[in-house]
C-alpha cells in the first residue's frame, strides 16, 4: 500500500518545523514579488497536490544541519556504519549499511494486512503499528548485522515527506537511540533515499543522471545534478502514476494491500491491452509533464458502465496507456538533455514503488538502449520503502559533512526534492 491510498483518509495538516519555516522565509529572496499565473503554474509542476505555497519551496538543502561536531572525522571514515530508520508510511523498516555499500543487516515489518480491509492507509492504525514494531525492527537489523548499538557510527532517519504521526515514531526512536548511545543524528528526505539508493547499488554511477521518481504519491522527472541538488524537468499535474494504479485496482475490486500496482500488473497479464481505446494524456504537449487523472476517470467510466467488461482487459489497457504516457515524456526529457549538452547525462535511475513493474522495466530498457544510456533500476525488493535507502542517503550526507541536531528539527509531511523547473 502506498501514500496515495491515504488520499481520502489523509487528515494530517502541514506543520513544518519552526526552524525550517524560518529558513524557508529567509531563503525566499523574492518573497513579496507578485507572480503571474503562468509563473506559478511552472513553479508548481510536479509538486504533490495539497502542497501549500510556502511548503513548495522546501528543498533538501533547507534542512541541512547546522550541527556538526565530529562530522569531519566521520565524513572521511572508510568503514562508516549507519543505521537507517524508515516509518513514513506503512512499512516499518531499518537497516545497517556500511560506506562501501554493503547492507550488513535489514528488517521490514509491513502493515499491508492491517490496512487491507480499509482500502487505504489509516493513519492512526499505521502509527500504532509503527510504534509496536519499531524497537523489534531496529533490534533485528542490528542482530542480522551482528552488531550492537556501539558499533553504529550514526543514525539516519526519514523526517519527511510522509504521514507526520508515522514519521514521528521513527524520528523519536532515532533521537532516543542517539541520546542513549551518544551517536550523531542525520535527517533524510524519503524521496532522496529512493534516488540515491541507485548509487549504493552502482558505485560507479556519476552525477548528473536522470531520475524517474514513480511512486504512490510522487511522479517526477528530474536531473540529479549533484549530491542534494535536483532540477525538475516535469511532473504530474494531478495524480501520480502509482495512485492511478491503486485507484484502478480499487475500481476493479482487486486486493490493494501492498499497493494496487502489483495486482493490476498481474491481472493485465491475461488481458487484451487493445481492448479499450483509453485516452493518451497530454499527447500534444511538448513538455515533460504528466497527467493521470483523465486516464483514471476513463477507467472508472468503463468499470461503472460496461456490464460485459473483462477486468483483465481493462487492467491491460490501462497499463498500456499509463506506461506509454510515461515513456513518451521520458523520451522528451532525454532528447532535451541531449540537445542541451550532448553526452552530459548518460544514465537513467528509476525509483519508487512503480519501478517494480516488469512491463515498465522492459520498456525503459528499450528506451535507454535507443539512446545508448545506462539504465539503473533497483531490484523490486528495494524499489519499495526500505531502511537501506535511508541509511545510504544518511551516509552520503555525512560524507558531505552534514549532521543534524534533532532538537532543532521536526518531521514534515510535504518535502519535494525540487520545485526548480528547468525544462524550456
Ligand atoms: O515508493 P512506494 O513504496 O511508496 C510511496 O508511495 O512512497 O510506492 C508504492 C506505489 C503504490 O502506488 C503501488 O501500487 C506502486 O508503487 N507499485 C506498483 C507496483 N508495485 C508497487 N505499480 C505498478 N506495478 C507494480 N508492480
Ligand atoms: Zn517510497
Secondary structure topology:
Layout: H1 18-27, H2 37-44, H3 71-75, E1 81-86, E2 91-98, E3 103-110, H4 112-116, H5 123-144, E4 154-160, H6 164-181, E5 185-189, H7 190-201, E6 209-214, E7 219-226, E8 229-235, H8 241-251, H9 261-268, H10 293-305, H11 311-340, E9 347-351, H12 358-371, E10 374-376, H13 380-383, H14 387-399
Parallel strand pairs: 1-4, 4-5, 6-9, 9-10
Antiparallel strand pairs: 1-2, 2-3, 6-7, 7-8
Helix pairs in contact: 5-6, 7-14, 8-10, 8-11, 9-11, 10-11, 11-12
The structure holds 5'-O-[(R)-(carboxyoxy)(hydroxy)phosphoryl]adenosine and zinc ion.
GO molecular function, one term: tRNA N(6)-L-threonylcarbamoyladenine synthase activity
Catalytic activity: L-threonylcarbamoyladenylate + adenosine(37) in tRNA = N(6)-L-threonylcarbamoyladenosine(37) in tRNA + AMP + H(+)
EC number: 2.3.1.234
